[in-house]
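[agent] plan:
  1. take the single chain provided in the ticket
  2. run structure prediction with default settings
  3. attach C-alpha cells to the ticket
  4. add a short note for the reviewer (M.T.)
[agent] executing step 1
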Amino acid sequence: MLKICIIGGATAGWWAAGAIEKLLPDTKIVLYDSPDIPHLGVGESTLPQIKSWFDSLGLKEHEWVDECNAVKKYGNYKQGWDNPIGDPYILRFWYNRGQFKEMMDDPTMWSYKPGTDRTPNKQKFWDKIETDYDYAYHVCAESSGLMMKKTCERTEVRFETLTELPPGFDLYLDCTGFGRKFVKDFTEMPISKNHKLDSAWVCPMQREDHPIEEYTKSIARRYGWQFQVDLQNRTGLGYVFSSSHVSDKDALLEYYTFWDYKALPKEEWLHENQKPLHVKRKPVEGCEPRLIKWKPMVLENPWSDNVVALGSAAGFVDPLEATALFNLQAGIDNLIKAIQRGVKPKAYNRQMRNIWRDSLRFQECHYVNSQREDTGFWRHITEERPEYSKKAWEYYNRYSSEFSWIFPSGIWAQQNIYLNTHKDYYETAN
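[agent] step 2 finished; step 3 output follows
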C-alpha cells in the first residue's frame, strides 16, 4: 500500500486528497492541516477542462455548482489590451482549427490599407465564431476545497504544524503555497522578462443586485490588469500589477477607482481621465483590500526525490487566463497517472514543464503584442513586439493543437486576431 502525506489543508491539499481517494484506492492518505499555512482563496476562474476532471472523480455538475457558488463562464472579456481605450472583445473557448484556416483564407476577413500590413476585420471574425463555444466555470476556490473534503472518507487529518517531514511515508505532497516549506529542489524554469507582474490588490465584493457576468473580465490598466470574477454570492475584484513600475500605495489608489470613482478625494485621483469601469460596489462585510505578493517563478522539477510540489508551491506567475487552478488540476491528474503507470519523476517533471511553457507563452502574448505605450510598464513589456508578432503565429502552429491540454489552436488564433497580429506573419509562419 502506497503511503501518501499531504501537507496543507487548503484547496490544493483537499483537491489532491479527494482525487487520490477516488483514483488510487490502494493508498493510505494523511493530511496535515496547519493554521500557519495561509488560505489565499485566490484563483477562482477555470478553464473548460475542470468539468471533465470533476466528472472523472464522480462529482456531478448539478451538485457541485451550487456548493461552490459557481457561475458558468463562456469566455474572457478583455479590454484595453490593444490600446488604453480599445474596444472590448470576448475570447471564446473555440477549438476548431480547420474552420479557422478557412476564415484566414477568406479575403473579406481582412482590412487592406495602402502602405500598411493587412489587419483583421474583427467584427467579421467575431460574427463567424460567435456560435461555436464551450464553457468553464467561476468557482469559489475555498468552497471547492471544502466540497472535495466532504467526499473524502479515508483521509486521516492531523491538525499539526510540521517543521520537518514526518517519517513513514512513501510520497509527500507539498501544498504549502508560496511558502514551499518542504520543496527539495528550488531550481527554477527560465521565464521571460515579460512576466513582471508580482503583486495584487484583491477584495471580495457584495453581489447585491448587480447582474452576473458570465465572463471573466480582464481589463488592462496602466501597470497591469484588473479582474472581475462573478460568483453566485459575491464578486472577486482585483488589480494585478508590477511593483517595479508602481508603488503599492498608488496601485491601491488606482484599484479604488475600479469599484467607486468617488471613493477618494479628487486630489488623490491618479489621472483626470481615469474613469470607473464598474458601477459602485461594496466590499463583503468585514473585508477590505489585501495585498498579495509573490515571486514569479516555476519549479524546474516539482517532483524531487519523494516530494511533489502542487499548486502555487510548484509555481506562480501572472494569474492571467485562469491558469492557477488549471495547473493545480494538471499537477494532481498527471501525478496520479504517473503512479498508475509507474512513470518516473523525470517524465512527470518534463510533462509539467511543457504545460507551464504553453501557459507562459500565451500569457506573454497578451503583453508583448499589445499596442500600448502609455506608461513605463507597457513600453518595457512591448519592446520585443515586432519579433514576437511572428512568434505568436509560430506558437499557434508549433506548440498548440486542437487537442492541446491547455490552450488549443483556436484560442491562440483569436488572441492573435484581436491584438492585430497581422496576416503577413501568419502566412510567414505557415
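[agent] step 4 note for reviewer: The radius of gyration is 22 Å.
[agent] ticket updated
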